UniProtKB/TrEMBL annotation:
<dbReference type="InterPro" id="IPR015943">
    <property type="entry name" value="WD40/YVTN_repeat-like_dom_sf"/>
</dbReference>
<dbReference type="InterPro" id="IPR053053">
    <property type="entry name" value="WD_repeat_protein"/>
</dbReference>
<dbReference type="InterPro" id="IPR001680">
    <property type="entry name" value="WD40_rpt"/>
</dbReference>
<keyword id="KW-0677">Repeat</keyword>
<protein>
    <submittedName>
        <fullName>WD repeat-containing protein 25</fullName>
    </submittedName>
</protein>
<feature type="repeat" description="WD">
    <location>
        <begin position="71"/>
        <end position="113"/>
    </location>
</feature>
<dbReference type="InterPro" id="IPR036322">
    <property type="entry name" value="WD40_repeat_dom_sf"/>
</dbReference>
<keyword id="KW-0853">WD repeat</keyword>
<dbReference type="InterPro" id="IPR019775">
    <property type="entry name" value="WD40_repeat_CS"/>
</dbReference>
<feature type="repeat" description="WD">
    <location>
        <begin position="1"/>
        <end position="26"/>
    </location>
</feature>
<dbReference type="Pfam" id="PF00400">
    <property type="entry name" value="WD40"/>
</dbReference>
Length: 271
């Protein structure tokens, strides 16, 4: 658990050796994309990287060899991708024109397509049992807030519910568990128009969020109390991710395209 993958607006996908003491921490740089890269995911086996972006495709790359294994061409900018949690040969992609497609890595073809008039897809996430997935889309142009978050049946290609969230706000990030608690609010972090995302700790006790002020905000999930505020960047901090093994380590990325990802450490509390 010493490698971190990042997607950049400079058309590259980088793999970082986060524990390296050298000034140059890049272990690999992949330049297969022809435009800015929006999202990147490790394959479940950890041997490949799947990335997508403004060149209207997703690309699967062998990390060790540095070669492109598969290209998945689409007719729109691809903003988000997610591997199926049970069948690692499948992944879900969401596009800027509202498309949702389930791809088969073995054939390079679309296995399922989920059709509904949606805005740009902002995020997707599978349910724990992998029978459903939830999508978030930008509804600012259509004013159709009932389409902001939709729960889909994976195999039947139909929406099961579009009444999950009917607020007139877009949700750039969705994370399990999928339930709305109207009485819990995690405050103090700032969005200011940036696509700020959040993430839960592995034990589910903490929720970390980026912020437009460049800080990482860490909350107690159950009480909503702000337990930690960490200055990470001078510009907006747009995404955070907990280390898969070490609970007191968070990776964060900033809005500045020249800034590399940062690892943040702190002394763990008993909260």
């Amino acid at each position: 658990a010493h490698l971190l993958a990042s997607a950049g607006m400079d058309q590259t996908v980088c793999v970082w050796n986060v524990w390296s003491r050298d000034s140059q921490k890049k272990a690999r740089v992949f330049t297969h994309h022809n435009a800015a890269v929006k999202d990147v995911r490790w394959s479940p086996q950890g041997l490949s990287l799947l990335s997508c972006g403004y060149d209207c495709c997703s690309r699967l790359v062998d990390v060790e060899k540095g070669t492109e294994k598969q290209l998945f061409q689409e007719d729109e900018v691809v903003g988000v991708i997610k591997f199926h949690p049970d069948n690692h040969n499948l992944f879900l992609s969401g596009g800027f024109k509202g498309s949702l497609r389930l791809w088969d890595v073995r054939t390079g073809n679309v296995a399922e397509e989920y059709v509904r008039p949606l805005g740009p897809i902002l995020d997707v996430e599978f349910s724990t049992d992998a029978r459903h997935f939830i999508s978030s889309s930008d509804v600012s142009k259509t004013n159709a807030s009932e389409n902001s978050i939709i729960v889909w049946d994976v195999s039947r290609e139909i929406p099961l519910s579009n009444q999950v969230y009917v607020e007139a706000y877009t949700c750039p990030c969705i994370r399990p568990p999928f339930k709305l608690d109207k009485y819990k609010r995690y405050e103090d972090h700032v969005v200011s128009g940036f696509p700020v995302k959040c993430n839960f700790s592995l034990d589910g006790n903490e929720l970390a969020s980026g912020s437009a002020d460049g800080c990482i905000y860490v909350y107690n999930y159950r009480t909503s109390e702000l337990v930690r505020k960490i200055k990470a960047f001078e510009e907006a901090c747009v995404d955070v991710a907990y280390h898969p093994v070490m609970p007191n380590v968070i990776a964060a990325c900033g809005w500045n395209v020249c800034c590399r990802p940062r690892m943040v450490f702190w002394g763990h509390s008993n909260r």
